[in-house]
Design goal:
The protein is α+β, with helices and mostly antiparallel strands and 284 residues long. It contains nine helices and ten strands. The protein has two domains: 4-128, Alpha-Beta Barrel (N-terminal domain of MutM-like DNA repair proteins), CATH 3.20.190.10; 140-275, Helicase, Ruva Protein, domain 3 (Orthogonal Bundle), CATH 1.10.8.50. The chain is globular. It binds zinc ion.
Length: 284
């Protein structure tokens, strides 16, 4: 499932082709969204004025005042293309937004709505969301405060980091990567941590997510990436993204970059979790 950084990058791509240009082509798949058919016609001639993301949801604002809410769930995917290109996809096309020069196409998403200001401010999913992990104004201190609050302090990080009401935009790969980078036992709770440990996890939640957004999904710090790539060159192994992208995620049994002991994989809160037992003080 795409996480906050992937949704934000998709929003950037869509904004690049749509922003502030009159829409000439708007369509919502009739089978999936019969109730949006009239709205599609009304959006012709309007423009997209802004695209925000809230965790894994995208909010596209139109000049006429409506906002399109979309949540990609597991399979949704945005594709952008020049008007003379026809993207090849076996997925179901759900939303088309086109200008004179480009199209943005949303495939497979089932959760799409057009909201006015009132519906936007009372949307049940958005109303419950925690602060966005990519919000530039969010500070580590605010995350510490939130983690220490009554609602969250007794829940372990395995569950807490997947809870969109705690921090919006953190998903499964970020969970493993943040916990490793902070050196935190995944089954510990905020209440069990020292102030220093809490600050470490809050800082890593911000840094790791922001780095993934900037780099297109690489969570390893730049220095480690350079070192891994140097070793790959020496050994003649391929330089694929998967080979240097993550510190622990999808690296089961491979040596930890810090202590060389094998990375472990378990299912935790119904999703695969990867960790280093030594660096993260997990009893074995
Ligand atoms: Zn280790």
């Amino acid at each position: 499932m795409p996480e906050g950084p992937e949704i934000r990058r998709a929003a950037d791509r869509v904004a690049k082709v749509l922003l502030d240009r009159p829409l000439t082509d708007v369509a919502f798949a009739a089978d999936a969204f019969p109730h949006l058919q009239d709205a599609a016609d009304a959006l012709i001639g309007q423009s997209v004025t802004r695209i925000d993301t809230r965790g894994k949801a995208m909010l596209m604002r139109f000049s006429g005042g409506l906002t399109m809410y979309s949540h990609n769930q597991l399979y949704g995917r945005w594709v952008t293309a020049a008007i003379n290109e026809i993207p090849l996809s076996t997925r179901a096309l759900r939303v088309t937004l086109g200008t004179a020069t480009h199209r943005a196409l949303l495939y497979s998403a089932s959760d799409v709505a057009l909201l006015d200001e009132v519906a936007l401010s009372t949307h049940p999913f958005l109303a419950r969301l925690g602060p966005d992990i990519l919000d530039q104004h969010l500070t580590a201190g605010q995350i510490v405060e939130r983690a220490s609050s009554r609602a969250f302090r007794n829940r372990n990080f395995v569950a807490l980091l997947l809870d969109q009401n705690f921090l919006a935009g953190v998903g499964n790969y970020l969970r493993s990567e943040i916990l490793f980078a902070a050196g935190i036992n995944p089954w510990s709770t905020p209440k069990q941590l020292t102030a220093k440990q809490l600050m470490a996890i809050a800082r890593q939640a911000l840094h790791t997510s922001q780095r993934s957004y900037r780099t297109g999904g690489v969570t390893n710090p730049a220095r480690r990436v350079a070192e891994i790539r140097r070793q790959l060159r020496q050994s003649g192994e391929p330089h694929t993204l998967e080979n240097y992208r993550f510190a622990v995620f999808r690296r089961e049994a491979a040596p930890c970059y810090a202590c060389r002991r094998p990375i472990r994989k378990v299912r935790a809160a119904s999703r695969p979790l990867f960790y280093c037992a030594t660096c993260q003080n997990v009893d074995t």
